[in-house]
Each structure stands twice: as C-alpha cells, then as structure tokens.
Specification:
CATH architecture of the largest domain in chain B: 3-Layer(aba) Sandwich
Structural class of chain A: mainly alpha
Structural class of chain B: alpha/beta
CATH superfamily of chain A: MetI-like
Helix content of chain A: over 70%
Mean pLDDT of chain A: 87
Shape of chain A: globular
Oligomer: heterodimer
Strand content of chain A: under 5%
Number of domains of chain B: 2
CATH architecture of chain A: Orthogonal Bundle
Number of strands of chain B: 12
Distance between the termini of chain B: 56 Å
CATH topology of the largest domain in chain B: D-Maltodextrin-Binding Protein, domain 2
Helix content of chain B: 40-55%
Low-confidence stretches of chain A: 314-319
CATH class of the largest domain in chain B: Alpha Beta
Strand content of chain B: 15-25%
Mean pLDDT of chain B: 88
Chain lengths: 319, 340
C-alpha cells in the first residue's frame, strides 16, 4: 500500500505537458459544441429529407397545414415565432434593463439582495407552471381588463382589432417576456456592474445629474453588453414551448391583430410529433425543427453583425 | 472490528450476487409503447398482472399512437398500442403480419360553457355546422330547434379543439366525417386536422380549461376526463334517432352494434344500436402474429388472455368501456393463434 508521492505525478519542472494537455482538453470541449450543433442540424436534415424534396422552398411560403391532405407549410409558425418573441423582447428588455439599473445604481444596498433572489427564483419556475398560471390567472385578466382597454384606446390600429378570446399572440408575448426577464436582468446587472467607476466619476466631475450620468456614462458604455443580453433573451424566447402553447391559441394563421390566436414552431412540434402517424407528416415536423434551428442561427449571426457595427460607432464615441 | 467489517462485506457481496442472479433469471421484461389514451388502464393491468405472474414485468411508454406504430414496425418494442388502426401502407411495411387487438373503448363528449348550464341535445348536423364555422350563434335554429326548453343566448360560439395530435380528435373527426359530407370533403379525419375555425387547447385539460374560461365556448373531450372532473356535456342524437347520454353502457352498446371485420380495424362511430352513443372509438394493442422470442411470446399471450378475461372487468372503474362478450370471444380466439 505505498501510494506514489504527489510530487512524482507532477512532471519535471519546465515541462510543457500540463499546458498542452489543458489546451487540448479545452479545445475538445469547445469543439464538442460545434460538433453537437452540426449533428443536430444533420439529424434534422436527415429526418426532414422527404418533406424537403416534396415541398422544396414552397414549405417556407405556404400557409397551409393540413395533416389529412398531407399538405404542409411553415409560414404561420415562422410568423408566430417571430412575432411572439419580438413582443416578448419589446416588453422584457426595457423592464429588465430598468431593473438592472435600479439594482446597480439606485437601490438601497439593503434592498438589492432580496430583489436579486426574487428574480432568480423567477428563473427557477418551470415553464408549465407559467402556462397554467397563464390559463387560469393571466388570460382571464387580460380578456376582461387589459385587452378591452387596449381595444378602446388603440383600436384604430390594426394591431388591436378583432374579437377578444384572451388566448392570443399578445398573451404569448407577455408570458415569454416574464420568462426571459430573469436572464435579461441578471446579465444586464453584471454588465452594468462592470462599468468602471471612473466613467461615473468623470461624468459627475463634469457636473452631470444622476440621470445624465446613467445616460452618458453608464448606459452608453454598456450598450453592447445590454444588446447581447437582449439577444440571449431572444434566443430563449424563440425556443420557448410549453407555456406558449398553453396561451397562444394554437391556430396556424397570420393575422395583423395581436388579439388573434397564433402558433409557433416549437409549439406545433411539441403538440403534433407524438401522434404524427405518416412519414411525410413526421418529416414535415422535422423540417419545422430545421427551420427553427436556422432561424436561431440567423438571428445570432444578425446580432453579431449588428454588434460589430455598433462597436465601430461606440468605440469612436468613447474615445 | 476490522475482521467483522471484512466478514460483513463478504456476506453482503454474496447476498447481492445471489439477489441479482435471482432477479435476472426470474424477471422478464416486456416492452410496449404507444397511445396515451389507454395508459391509465394499461398501467392498472400491468400492476394487477404482476400479482398474477410475478415472473414478468411490463414496461409501457405512453409516447403516442404515432410512436407506437413506428416502434412496433421497427421491432424496438414487444407490443405497440394505437388509438387509430394502422393504415394499409404502414402494415405493408411490416416485416411480418401485425395484428390489431382491441382492448377497451372510450367516447368523446361535447362540453360547453353557457350561462345556467342548460342540458343540450345536439345532432350530427348541428355539431358539424358548429365545428365547420357555419353555425356561429347559440340561438341558431339548428341548435334551438332541438332544445326548445333551453334558454340560448344571441352570442357567438367559440370553438375549442385539441391542438396536440390525439386519438380523441381521431374519434371526433371520424364521427364528423360519417355525419357530414361537407366535413369529409373539406377536413377529413385524423389525429390532427386542419380546423376550419376555433382555438386549440393542449390535452383534455387544455380544452376543458379553455371551455371553462371562455363564455359561449364549445369543445370535445374524453368521457373519462369529463366524468372525473364533473363537467357537463350534451346528449347526442345517434343513428337510430334518439338522444343518448354518453356513458360506459352506451359506449359498450355502440361496440356491440358496430360492424367489426376480421382484422379488427373497425370504426364504431354512429353505430346503429338503439342505445348506442355515436361519438365513440376503440383502442388497440399491436402485436406480431409470429413472435420472435419464444419465452416472451408465451408470456405476452398469457397476459393477453388474462387481460381479456380479468382485465376487462377493471375497465369501468377507470371510466373505460369494456368490450362486449361477443368481441372478447373473437379477440381471444385471435390471441390463441399467435405463434411463439
């Protein structure tokens, strides 16, 4: 029972082994992610081949989704995914950034930790709970209180016209907004905290008010990071499934009104995959998954491009 | 002390080894997958059967009828389960003959949300008209004519249907196809269809939740779910012309009067029996006529025999309609012809 002394495990001083081993291990971990994405894409491609060949590009433009006649089109689902996610961002980004600003710049120290814990708790609530809460609490309230007010005051816009069922694109947007609020708030908070105090002090030294300090020194400096936080939120919003399907009304249609029911890519896959009994049906659902992956990748690429252009203008301003 | 520990370890090791060989040799695992609708009764059967024959254990994954059909075709499970019969194309793809064995039946009820909850009577034309979006008001003569005593409002009808693919939808659309030629041409039948109107709710709970929430709404849900949750539902006019309240008895009656072909791939909607409830359907187990594994095949056949004799008696306690004796004897005869 003589164990080797710890020293004998270590290579001789000056050896490059730990360095290169670590480098390779890290590269492997990073590479795995790329491999995983490629594999997911490949599997989705293989699964959706039948539908790809049958419908070709028409799959993306067609609004028909008829499992009986075996005619499938993705447009209403793509539309619903985009609209519900954008609605969520429109609601969640200002709220999240404002909360983060309050927490880092304005809130009394005693209050900060309890609020942070509350936000993190929000992230721990399972999706289906949000959905049930949506059906039983949020939807009746929206139907009886908020939506009639919106219709009355903003009814001249096509966005707020038509019959009110409660289940709607807007309800889905609100539910997703609540679900992505924690991630946007947490990341925004980290970013705002990383703004150097020097920035703030400089602004104060110039005689700026508190609001001006926030605007000129903090928000302007943190713009890129906050944009990144919004993109991470969008990534989650695009794939949100369970809670959305419970409140969106699950109707594959494209309507200008936010009161109208809609459908999303992730919801239709979750709803119909288990009972998809024909090969073409299953294949079309696979293709919806492929479309969702493509949409997510495109959104991220677009975000990178926007970020780059912002960095150009942003850095010149800072300098 | 040290010695004691060592002894204990040895003893424990021996005991573990003995235990594992016992379980390995004695317990056989039979895998199945498929429909979610009969999951409660199947799991009850497997639990009860474990007391009858402890040497075999059943593992059933309720992944949906589509998955059940795919897995039995791929032979990744020992039996499949489906709420709708397999199509000819699918059966043609099977490596060997697959037999359909009906187990229990269920029904869809029409539930609605109207002030005062009047008891409604509906015929096929009215139900099809509502779900086609042609009848849009509750006081439409097509509804009011059948319900002279009910106070029907001049409000819009909000249709609620299942958003997830399901056997419940299959039964409902199968029924609408038999009572409405317009439905048959425009929509057709399936576990998911392209709905002409309405909102989609996920699962029985999604549909009933929305019907409860939205005034003036109407939807269809499983009889078992409606009974367990004390929901009100309509009487539906059957092929013989009388209004029937959905119940286990009226579903079994529908089964007894349905025409059942030799391969058991039958539809029992709009059954001709005088007391038959029209929106009903059966669920099937899918098994290979020739079992590859002798021991497993033998155990599976023994279980099926038990299911048709003792198992059927458990069905009403979970709000499923048991098969009538005439169908049970035909199914049993088929089970005896399974080769292993």
């Amino acid at each position: 029972m003589s164990a080797p002394s710890p020293r004998s495990i270590l290579p001789a001083p000056g050896s490059q082994l730990p360095n290169s081993a670590f480098k390779w291990a890290a590269a492997l971990a990073a590479g795995m992610i790329v491999v995983l994405i490629v594999l997911v894409g490949w599997e989705l491609y293989v699964g959706s081949r039948q539908s790809l060949f049958k419908f070709a590009a028409g799959f993306l433009w067609s609004s028909e989704w008829d499992p009986v006649a075996e005619r499938y089109g993705a447009l209403p689902f793509i539309f619903g995914t985009f609209v519900s996610s954008l609605l969520a961002l429109v609601i969640a980004v200002p709220l999240g950034v404002a909360t983060a600003l309050f927490l880092t710049e304005l809130a009394p120290l005693k209050l900060r930790q309890p609020i942070i814990i509350a936000i993190e708790m929000l992230a721990a609530v399972p999706s289906v709970i949000f959905g049930l809460w949506g059906i039983f609490v949020l939807i009746p309230w929206l139907r009886d209180h908020l939506f009639p007010v919106l219709k009355h005051s903003l009814g001249f816009l096509p966005l707020f016209q038509g019959p009110i069922y409660g289940l709607s694109m807007l309800a889905a947007g609100i539910i997703i907004a609540i679900m992505i609020l924690p991630i946007i708030t947490s990341i925004s908070r980290e970013i705002l905290r990383s703004v150097p105090d020097l920035q703030r002090e400089a602004a104060y030294a110039l005689g700026a008010t508190r609001w001006e300090v926030l605007r000129i020194a903090v928000l302007s400096y943190a713009r890129r990071g906050l944009f990144g936080a919004a993109i991470l939120g969008l990534g989650r919003a695009l794939g949100e499934t369970m809670a959305v399907t419970m409140v969106i009304g699950n109707r594959p249609q494209i309507s200008a009104s936010l009161f109208a029911p809609g459908y999303t890519l992730a919801s239709v896959i979750a709803n119909e995959f288990t009972e998809a009994t024909t090969d073409l049906y299953r294949s079309s659902l696979y293709e919806l998954g492929l479309v969702l992956l493509a949409v997510t990748v495109l959104v991220n690429v677009a975000a990178q491009v926007m970020l780059k252009s912002m960095m150009g203008s942003g850095s010149s301003k800072v300098a | 002390m040290r010695l004691n520990n060592k002894k204990m370890m040895v003893l424990l090791g021996c005991a573990l080894a003995a235990l594992s060989t016992v379980t390995a040799s004695a317990q056989m695992l039979i895998n199945g997958a498929g429909a979610t609708f009969p999951y409660p009764i199947y799991s009850k059967w497997f639990n009860e059967y474990a007391k009858v024959d402890p040497s075999v254990r059943f593992n059933y994954q309720s992944i949906g009828s589509g998955g059940g059909q795919a897995q039995i075709l791929a032979e990744t499970v020992d039996f499949g389960a489906s709420d709708g019969p397999m199509s000819d194309e699918k059966l043609a793809k099977a490596p060997r003959a697959i037999w359909h064995l009906p187990t229990v039946a269920g029904a869809d009820v029409i539930t609605y949300n109207l002030e005062g909850f009047p008891k409604l009577q509906l015929d096929g034309a009215a139900i099809a008209g509502i779900f086609l979006g042609k009848i849009t008001k509750w006081n439409d003569p097509a509804i009011a004519g059948q319900n002279p005593d009910a106070k029907l409002p001049d409000s819009d009808i909000v249709v609620v249907h299942r958003s997830d693919g399901s056997g419940t939808t299959y039964i409902f659309t199968d029924y609408l196809c038999t009572v409405s030629s317009t439905w048959k041409e425009k929509v057709g039948k399936g576990t998911s269809v392209s709905w002409p109107t309405g909102l989609g709710g996920k699962g029985n709970e999604g549909v009933s939740g929305q019907v409860k929430q939205v005034p003036g709404s109407i939807g269809y849900i499983e009889l078992a779910y409606a009974k367990q949750n004390h929901l009100s539902y309509a009487d539906v006019k059957n092929a013989a012309g009388s209004y029937i309240t959905p119940s286990i008895e009226s579903v079994t009656e529908a089964l007894a009067s349905a025409t059942i072909p030799d391969d058991f791939r039958f539809s029992m909607v709009n059954s001709p029996g005088a007391k038959a409830y029209p929106i009903a359907g059966a669920t099937w187990l899918l098994v290979y006529a020739e079992q590859k594994d002798h021991a497993k095949g033998e155990k599976l056949v023994q279980f099926l025999k038990w299911a048709y004799s003792d198992g059927e008696k458990l069905a009403p306690s979970l709000d499923y309609a048991p098969l009538p004796d005439s169908v049970v004897s035909r199914a049993l005869e088929r089970v005896q012809r399974i080769k292993y």
